[in-house]
Design a protein that fits this description.
Number of domains: 2
CATH architecture of the largest domain: 3-Layer(aba) Sandwich
CATH superfamily of the largest domain: Vaccinia Virus protein VP39
Distance between the termini: 70 Å
Helix content: 25-40%
Radius of gyration: 21 Å
Number of helices: 10
Strand order of the largest sheet: 3-4-7-6-5-8-9
Number of strands: 9
C-alpha cells in the first residue's frame, strides 16, 4: 500500500460510522482562497436519507429550526434562502462584494465526528464558505450569499441568542475578521454549557482570502482567545496544517511571482543554497524583482508609518 493510500485509510478510521455509508470520496487539495488549512476533502452525500425532499424543502425546514434561536434585538431580512443580518453599514465596513470570489473548504474527520455527536442538536459553522454538502444539523453562518448559507452576518456580532449551539466550528476564518477577540467572545456566548469548539487559524501562511486578511496567530495566540472562558482540551498541528504546507505555499507563490532568468535561478536553487546569512541574498534578482503585491503577500513583516492629526 502506498504512503498516500495508507494515510487515507488512517483518515477513514476517524469518519463516524454513521457517515461512512454515504462517503463518496477522499482526496487532498490546496485551498488558496482560505489557505491550506483544510486540505483533506471528504465528499459525502449527507442528504441521501432525504432524497425524497428537494434542497429548498430541506433548507426551509432548517430555517424554521433556526428562527427561534435568532436574536430578537437585531433587524434582519428573511429570504427564501437565508436570514440576512447584514446592514448597509456592516457591508460597507466589511468591504463585501456580492460577486466577490468564492471560498470553500470541506470538513475533516474531527468536524464530521462533531456533527455525528450532535446529530439531534445544532452545530454552528462560523464562516462556512460555500458548502457542497448541506447538513440538516449544521447552521452555515457566512458573510457571502452562497446557496448553502443559512444566516448572513459578521463573526463579531453573531445574531443568535445566548447558549443555543451544541458545537461551533470555525476553520480559517478568524484571520479575516477585524476583531478576532470580539469574534471569539461571540463564539463562546452562543455555545451551550458543555458545548464544544473546533477552531483553526493560520500561523505561517501568506496573505490570502476574502474580503480581507488581518491576523495570523501562533498556537499561544489561538489559545489566548479562548483559554479563560473555555477549557482548552488541546491545541494540535494535524497533517493538514504541518509546516510543509506553508513551505510549499511560499515557494510556489514566490516562483509564480518571478519571470525570466530570475525565475529560472530561483527554481534551480537547492535548500542548501538558502542556508547562508540573509543579507547575502538581498541583491539577488529573485529577491529584488518581486512585485510590491507579492512582497506584501510573502512579507516577513510589515512596517507602518503614521501620525496623529494636529
Amino acid at each position: 500500500m502506498s504512503s498516500m493510500s495508507l494515510w487515507r485509510a488512517q483518515l477513514l478510521r476517524h469518519i463516524p460510522p454513521r457517515l461512512r455509508p454515504v462517503l463518496r470520496s477522499v482526496r487532498t487539495r490546496m485551498c488558496p482562497a482560505r489557505g491550506p488549512n483544510v486540505v483533506v476533502e471528504v465528499a459525502l452525500d449527507a442528504t441521501q436519507p432525504l432524497r425524497s425532499k428537494s434542497f429548498s424543502q430541506i433548507k426551509e425546514r432548517k430555517l424554521q429550526r433556526i428562527e427561534p434561536l435568532l436574536s430578537k434585538k437585531r433587524p434582519h431580512a428573511r429570504t427564501a434562502m437565508c436570514f440576512d443580518f447584514l446592514s448597509d453599514e456592516m457591508r460597507s465596513i466589511a468591504g463585501i462584494d456580492e460577486l466577490g470570489p468564492e471560498s470553500s473548504n470541506n470538513y475533516d474527520g474531527d468536524a464530521l465526528a462533531m456533527f455525528d455527536r450532535y446529530s439531534d442538536g445544532l452545530v454552528l459553522d462560523v464562516g462556512a464558505g460555500r458548502r457542497t454538502t448541506y447538513f440538516p444539523n449544521v447552521v452555515n453562518f457566512e458573510i457571502a450569499p452562497f446557496e448553502s448559507t443559512d444566516v448572513r452576518g459578521i463573526a463579531e456580532d453573531l445574531p443568535f441568542e445566548d447558549a443555543v449551539f451544541d458545537g461551533v466550528i470555525s476553520i480559517a476564518v478568524l484571520e479575516h475578521v477585524r476583531d478576532p477577540f470580539r469574534a471569539a467572545a461571540e463564539i463562546v456566548r452562543v455555545l451551550k454549557p458543555g458545548g464544544e469548539l473546533i477552531c483553526c487559524v493560520p500561523f505561517l501562511q501568506p496573505l490570502h482570502g476574502y474580503p480581507h486578511h488581518y491576523y495570523n496567530m501562533t498556537h499561544q495566540g489561538l489559545r489566548n482567545l479562548f483559554d479563560v472562558p473555555l477549557v482548552v482540551d488541546r491545541v494540535s498541528v494535524p497533517d493538514s496544517t504541518l509546516p510543509i504546507w506553508s513551505l510549499t505555499w511560499i515557494l510556489q507563490s514566490w516562483a509564480n511571482g518571478l519571470t525570466g532568468p530570475a525565475r529560472e535561478e530561483f527554481l534551480q536553487m537547492r535548500i542548501s543554497d538558502l542556508q547562508g546569512e540573509t543579507p547575502s541574498y538581498l541583491d539577488r534578482s529573485w529577491v529584488r524583482t518581486l512585485s510590491q503585491d507579492k512582497n506584501f503577500e510573502l512579507a516577513s513583516a510589515c512596517v507602518l508609518f503614521a501620525h496623529k492629526p494636529s
